[in-house]
Amino acid sequence: AVVSTQSTGGERKRKSVRGCIVDSQLSVLSLVIVKKGEQDIPGLTDTTVPRRLGPNRVGRIRKMFNLSKEDDVRQYVIRRPLPEKDGKKPKSKAPKIQRLVTPVVLQRKRKRMALKRQRAQKVKQEASDYAKLLAK
């Protein structure tokens, strides 16, 4: 049987699947731990690996740090320290915050709404002009 799984690029990647029989001929098994038992599996469930990256969406950062609308989200972004190069000061990387409401975003929204209103006004004016033309 052939199962088609989607990869990140968007194209379909074919994967071969050998039915449901598990025996010594299989070299690799892809498994997910569903339930934790009494003992830990050494090297698998006895250690916790921290997440490499923090959230980069405004709402999720707010949720994580329990912030209000008034708080500045940019102060709470989780930065990732980069490996130090000898003789240079330490640097860190932070994600670009998504869905951040900035003055530019509000300006674009105002522009969009103004264009909408202008179009509606223009259509109304043209309709009244046409009505006058028909009334003659």
What does this structure look like?
- With 136 residues, the protein is of the alpha+beta class.
- Helices cover 30% and strands 10% of the residues.
- It contains two helices and four strands, in the order ββαββα.
- It has helices spanning 58-65, 103-135, and strands at residues 2-6, 12-16, 80-81, 92-93.
- The strands form two sheets. The chain has a two-stranded antiparallel ribbon with strand order 1-2. It has a two-stranded antiparallel ribbon with strand order 3-4.
- The radius of gyration is 29 Å and the shape is extended.
Which bin fits the share of residues in helices? 25-40%
**Number of separate helices:** 2
The dominant shape is extended
Q: Largest sheet, if any?
A: 2 strands, antiparallel
Structural class: alpha+beta
Radius of gyration: 29 Å
